[in-house]
Design brief:
The strands form two sheets. A five-stranded antiparallel β-sheet has the order 6-1-3-2-7, with helices on both faces. A two-stranded antiparallel ribbon has the order 4-5. It contains seven helices and seven strands. It has one domain. The chain is an alpha+beta fold. The protein is 40% helix and 17% strand.
């Protein structure tokens, strides 16, 4: 229930669902004796890289797992989650100061807000890549595994809830794992606070509106 409420908070913000693995060279440097180390690393790096890029930490949550979709066997640790798209007001420009043609076309067809949100999505993708060590400067192949496939994101930016994705993210939390421990969920402080306010509004009605004043 908590994450369904949190997911509702993301609707009006505009967001994407994602799945991401750490770059294997980054993962190899993390202390495997601490079963919560990977979850904390994902959480802290996403928050830090997002703050650096946007000046704020967007709403986000994720669940860490190391099972295949069926849950019958183990696989590389990875996370499933959702993250707010921060609309990026400063669209990229040419050296002469003109907005790039790509975004001028979007503005002409759909308006400035859509262009800013599309660019915000692109920057959000880069934040996730940077946070997990998967930037273009990293090695593209480790062993025989292509590291350029470590991130997957899904659009659209807006939808009426995403209960199926929330359920999917939690599908393997019942399985015990020494590698990733029992703490599987991470939620940004900002999103947690907003979810608590929304839950209070649902329970108490209009009297709870004072919390937003």
């Amino acid at each position: 229930m908590k994450m369904q409420i949190a997911s509702l908070c993301l609707i009006e913000k505009g967001h994407v669902s994602f799945r991401v693995h750490l770059h294997e060279e980054v993962e190899a440097r993390i202390d495997t004796s601490d079963p919560d180390a990977l979850r904390r690393y994902f959480r802290d790096r996403i928050a830090r890289c997002a703050r650096k890029e946007f000046g704020v930490v967007p709403f986000f949550w994720f669940v860490i797992e190391n099972r295949t979709k069926s849950g019958t066997s183990t696989t590389r640790p990875h996370i499933h989650g959702e993250i707010q798209i921060v609309a990026h007001a400063n669209l990229p420009t040419t050296k002469h100061g003109s907005v790039l043609m790509k975004y001028r076309r979007i503005i002409a067809e759909n308006g400035i807000e859509v262009a800013e949100r599309i660019y915000g999505r692109e920057r959000t993708r880069q934040v996730l890549l940077d946070a997990t060590g998967n930037s273009e400067s990293s090695n593209a192949v480790v062993g025989e595994r292509n590291q350029r496939r470590n991130l997957w994101m899904r659009t659209p930016y807006f939808n009426f809830g995403n209960p199926d994705w929330v359920s999917y993210a939690f599908k393997n939390t019942r399985h015990a794992s020494r590698r990733i421990g029992h703490r599987r969920l991470a939620i940004s402080l900002e999103l947690n606070r907003e979810a608590q306010r929304l839950w209070r509004l649902i329970r108490e009605g209009e009297s709870a509106m004072e919390q937003w004043r």
